[in-house]
Structure prediction request, 541 residues.
Amino acid sequence: MNTPYILASWSIVFGVLALYGLATVLRGRQLARRVPASERRWVDSQDVGGGGDG
Amino acid sequence: MTTQLASGAPGSPGLANPAEHGGGPGTGSRTTRALGVAALLGVAVFVPLGLVLSPEDVMQNDLVRMFYIHVPVAILAFVSCLVTGAGSFMYLWRRQLWWDTAACSAAQLGAVYTALTLVTGSLWGRPAWGTYWDWDARLTSTAMLMLLLLGYLALRKAPGTADSQAKRSAIVGLLLVPNVMIVRQSVDWWRSLHQPATINLLGNTRIGGTMLFCFVVGLAVMSLIWLWLLIHRFRVSWLEHQIDRLDLAGALLARRAEGQP
Amino acid sequence: MFGDAALVATKDLRVEMRSRVSLNQVAPFALLMLLVFAFALDPDRGVLTRVTPGLFWVAVLFCALLAIERSFATESADGSGEALRMAGLDPGGIFLGKAAAVAVVLLALELVLGAGVAILYDATSRADASGWLLILATCLSATAGIASAGTLYGVLAAGLRVRETLLPLLLLPVLTPVLIGSTRAFEAALSGASGDGWPWFALLTVFALIYTAAGMTAFGPLLEES
Prediction:
């Protein structure tokens, strides 16, 4: 009888976090297009092919 | 300011395409990818463990399943606020933008997690006490924390130079945790006049064995997700700063070029 | 530092005396609120008398928002903020002075509101001598808390285009303890059980001290840039 409440709270938590994560990643991609990789210090050297410090 | 600048980004002309700049497509790196995979695997373990496999509690019946999700979310909401406070303090001390960005990202996550804490708490309260809301010290101060965080984020959105904005925000961010503690204390005294003890959701439940295991797994998995979100959010804020800086430099160059015939 | 504080406070109060905005606009607004509460809550059932402490302090908080806004509007309007910074005054002193001026304005408004609730809501009939003492003490320390926290958040929001909307959002959650404490103390005083109210007076005093200290520390760096 408590199942609806439990399912609701679990799905709200994971749903909201997934949406927030998705929005953050998409926004990051959008912004990254305007910033050269040398300014993104987290870019792996492997991805860039030389340059970047991980 | 920042958001407006950035939201015009997709497809706007004059911007280099990703291939030209090189690098990964966004805010990901090897570390975050590893974190993300670990978090997803963790969720795959945690959800069946918490929802199906864990035994029902003697006092709480199946409501103990609320505990596995609500408590980690609440803990992480508070951790976010502590990170905001620490980042603000470090910014005021060292005056490095890095700390300000960290405080800002943590506050955003804090708002999300506090909202989730309130929602899951209400959904737990309804079957447990028969009401979604109670003017209990813990609930009330969590709601006030939410409002304080919203105020902090609104202040961050207010236009201004990066430096002055960071300074204002750092002072508000530093006062965040003390404010919550003062509010919490005063609400606690106020409510304890009417009801002797705060409502304890778990009653006199003893946590042990499988339940403790489930809780620890849940806390670990939720922390991984939190860390993944924090890193990505931090990098987005960092990119916003860089774009502001690049735009400013570009505008200065353009202005100078105009001046010289 | 206290000399600087006195200078700033007299300057602000003189501006306030000359412009008469507090007298001509904020005080009528305070009385208007008392009437609005009466329209919303049925005056015949004694509801107003019972909830007087809460209504009184809610009205004070709203008036405080206006007073704080004014205190910084005068600074940014004619560039006298620049002048204050240049004058070489101690930042802690400037903070104390501005907070003291706000506190004086607020105390005057509380006097108006107090007379209003005493007459209109018939709230003070059960208060005895010790109750009045508690009311006086509560007013003083709650006002000190509101003024110091308000001045700190006021300077944070000052100079921003969105300050009128931002200040209430920042300040009201912070002032929750003051609202709780002062309302409980007034309830105790007005019901003739003033002994229950003194712990709340202690809470208010602690709040005022914390925010005075925080404001004096933070004012220097904030004033540099605003």
